[in-house]
Amino acid sequence: MSLENAIAKPISSGFDRKQLVRRKRMDAVFARTGFLVTLAVLSVLLALIGQLAAEGVGRLSWQFLTSYPSRFAAQAGILSAWIGTILVMLLTALVAVPVGLGAAVYLEEYAPKNRLTTLIDINIANLAGVPSIVYGLMALALFVYEFRLGQSFLTAGLTLALLVLPMVIIAAREAIRAVPPQIREAAYALGATKWQTVQHHVLPCSMGGIMTGLILALSRAVGETAPLITVGALSFIAFLPHPPWQDEPPYVSFQWMFDPFTVMPIQMFNWVSRPQEDFHVNAAAAGLVLLVMTLAMNALAIAVRAHFRKRIRW
């Protein structure tokens, strides 16, 4: 018997046309089901955004964006809230990104595979699912009472950084793990050190996945309310924090990091809890602004991710 006949015989004898048709039918059903589920989710999302826009778009104005909160709904604005959101997210990113990325690089590229690293992996995965209020209680005891940082921007940024840190580490590790090992081997063959390989090859190749994880992590942080209320976020602030610069050397001031703060979700919660309908309209308008801020932040991260992906050609 020839080699071709020996190969063709079991294939032809084991060929089941009915089974093939059944599998194709199941694939088609799964594809249609996935499409319907996606369509339903998008429909709900568009309905919620449409309702939010219908209620709040008429309230949007330059006066609304540049005014402080007020007990009169027509005069109330979100100036201190959206500036506070930007500053808190800036501190969150400055802490969570380098720490999370450094931990991911060490655990994936340098740490030995033993029981200790396995225990660390399990704890990181568990921390990603801990309710946000637990982080708020921990931050209240650690940052407010123990370190005496007060109810400040720094406390808020550190709290949210701890909240999203497990997500950043997990996403960065998955992105680093997805880099083909041939890239590392080629770098080692040319005489590159471990750090040179990570710096010039592994990180650039994995930056797309890392940025995706950062998008998800910061998108979660920007809408968190419970941990910020726990550490002392104020719902009514009629002033801005100190400017980050000064007229005298060293011309940089960090006093704003210790000022009281509020953020957009806290301001929205304050307005929604009031019985007057005009404040509910203000909350809807603030929700639109928060949505735009989140989309802008995500668009920036997506642009950075696309930039890195264009530079990489496997």
How would you summarize what this structure contains?
It is found in: Cell membrane. By secondary structure, this protein is mainly α.
Structure, described:
This protein is mostly helical and 314 residues long. The chain has two domains: 3-52; 60-311, MetI-like (MetI-like fold, Orthogonal Bundle), CATH 1.10.3720.10. The protein is 72% helix and 0% strand. It has twelve helices and no strands. The protein has helices at residues 3-13, 17-56, 62-65, 79-110, 115-127, 132-146, 153-177, 181-189, 194-222, 226-230, 264-272, 277-311. Helix 4 crosses helix 11 (264-272). The protein is globular, with a radius of gyration of 26 Å. The two termini are 43 Å apart. The relative contact order is 0.13. The mean pLDDT is 86. It is a multi-pass membrane protein. One of its GO terms (cellular component) is plasma membrane.
Identify the notable features of this structure and list them briefly:
314 residues; mainly alpha; MetI-like fold; 12 helices; phosphate transmembrane transporter activity
Catalogue the unreliable spans: none
The CATH class designation of the largest domain is Mainly Alpha
- Give the second-level CATH assignment, the architecture of the largest domain: Orthogonal Bundle
Average pLDDT value? 86
Question: Which helices and strands, and how do they pair?
Answer:
Blueprint: H1 3-13, H2 17-56, H3 62-65, H4 79-110, H5 115-127, H6 132-146, H7 153-177, H8 181-189, H9 194-222, H10 226-230, H11 264-272, H12 277-311
Helix pairs in contact: 2-12, 4-7, 4-9, 4-11, 6-7, 7-9, 8-9, 9-12, 11-12
